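@channel sequence for tomorrow's demo:
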Amino acid sequence: MVVDFRKHPSLLHPLTISNSPVSNVDSFKFLGSIISQDLKWESNINAILKKAQQRMYFLRQRRKHGLPQELLVTFYTAVVESILCSSITVWFGAATQHDKHRLQRTIWTAEKIIGASLPSLQDLYIGRTRKRAENIIKDPSHPAHTLFDLLPSGRRYRSLRTKTTRHKNSFFPTAITLLNS
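structure tokens (generated this afternoon):
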């Protein structure tokens, strides 16, 4: 897969490894997330929604058989929310409002089935981003540890300079902003 955002991308020669040609693809599944050539996350979100909808059936069945509300919430967290949040720190910043709304509708549906309030997709993203950033800060051997540079006051982190919206909405600038707030 080739990711190239130049206005006039150059023609690439076919790539061969050990005398066998490597095919070009438009999207690729890596560590459970579908990455597309244009770095849009619609196909990944479609796959997440499909899995979540399949698991919502089991939530409905549990409710139908009279499972208590707190067990339904636990089941939702383990079975549905875990799917909705898979790699959320990677794709959420670049997801379109339409895709975020589609995912949020799944959460609203689960709220109606369970009869209890559940955390929104935005809240889940903020929580996961904060937790991951704190784990990176605690681990000096992490490759990104140096990106979290404390200012002389010792209370806030140095903001990363970003030139593009894509970079501004990515994990590290967002995590620093969340930690500073």
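heads up for whoever presents: The longest strand covers residues 27-30.
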